[in-house]
Amino acid sequence: xxxxxxxxxxxxxxxxxxxxxxxxxxxxxxxxxxxxxxxxxxxxxxxxxxxxxxxxxxxxxxxxxxxxxxxxxxxxxxxxxxxxxxxxxxxxxxxxxxxxxxxxxxxxxxxxxxxxxxxxxxxxxxxxxxxxxxxxxxxxxxxxxxxxxxxxxxxxxxxxxxxxxxxxxxxxxxxxxxxxxxxxxxxxxxxxxxxxxxxxxxxxxxxxxxxxxxxxxxxxxxxxxxxxxxxxxxxxxxxxxxxxxxxxxxxxxxxxxxxxxxxxxxxxxxxxxxxxxxxxxxxxxxxxxxxxxxxxxxxxxxxxxxxxxxxxxxxxxxxxxxxxxxxxxxxxxxxxxxxxxxxxxxxxxxxxxxxxxxxxxxxxxxxxxxxxxxxxxxxxxxxxxxxxxxxxxxxxxxxxxxxxxxxxxxxxxxxxxxxxxxxxxxxxxxxxxxxxxxxxxxxxxxxxxxxxxxxxxxxxxxxxxxxxxxxxxxxxxxxxxxxxxxxxxxxxxxxxxxxxxxx
Length: 503
Ligand code: 6PG
Prior knowledge:
Bound molecules: 6-phosphogluconic acid
Distance between the termini: 86 Å
Structural class: alpha/beta
CATH class of the largest domain: Mainly Alpha
Mean pLDDT: 95
Shape: globular
Number of domains: 3
């Protein structure tokens, strides 16, 4: 017997919207759905007649809004940016005080801050929730990163906790379900209230920046095995499958093993990966992360390198032309032990990953100051343990690190990560130098290593840089033998300042 009013609604029945709606209905919530094209709504409802909660199709936005129990809760899952604003604008006149709009798209956190404020001024409540895990995650258990009005969050919490992926509370191990194609129950939900206004979407953006870094690092490991050891895709896939049983155990390593072992459907003799064009796309969240790092002055070079690596891959024609003109080192075969080099590449990947996550968490630490949020880094790492694209055993170590010290200045300083990098760094350095010698580009491995070396340097060459700034621009410098904040300038004898500037 359908309820007279639905528990929640969802606007936007593209792939993510349909899967999320079915996940919600599977958990016993009645959900109203609306899509701009009515036919899509009707087909979707007709094709899914027997969900535990029930789907209610609405032909118009008015009908959709009227079908919801008050305070109305409605999820928007349309394209980020202008389309989201357009839906909000058409909803607002139909809503009443205290109704809740939830944006589940990959919105820019600054847009979420703006929308939350504008809606609050109208007496409406707004939640910006990161949703990660692709279509399978949306269907059977995503990681959810809700931010916004805390009282509004309490209203949607039962739904969010029910539909999220689940992990074991003690070990952090994901509870199988999502990958097995079944709804999950029991365990700790991979969803937690992140903070006010744009905090949820900010954390989702950092998730995506880290995702870009992870993906590029895996690509570099693959390229090094190919370039230095001449290994074929299938064999490299087996190495990744093996790595997935150890410290690198993660969704992205798991799918990489599958992808590399997949044959081309049109020519079974070939590996599919060998016929995929080497130009990467991107929708912008990695770029936002990098721009934000630059804006806040936080060193996060590894994610930025991952974004630039995609940009470089995209200029395929230019690279093909350049490959005929620019020469690298003379081609030679790597003659060292194969097994040892594969282990070294594993270690380089693990150490680079630690640095990349260290940078991501540094960004969140700085953002919380900028936006006056109080982020719980241990919980954030915990909710990323299941459902999302970067889910990995490794994240448990991050939760434990923040458990030991919630004020941890940098992940690298945690005893576990410090010890791990110390033990593996020789291999990391070997791989980066081999990449340089053999002319195999490894931008994230190299940049992460430079970050590590820079971060552990009590003294960097910025003394000379300040000298240069003072020389050409009288920008002043501080001295090692004077208190911080006291600035000095030298009238450089070789660079007398123009008379006019002296007046
Ligand atoms: C997720 C993903 C997802 C993102 C894709 C594609 O957490 O489920 O981050 O939100 O849209 O990964 O991103 P790009 O097109 O930028 O690679």
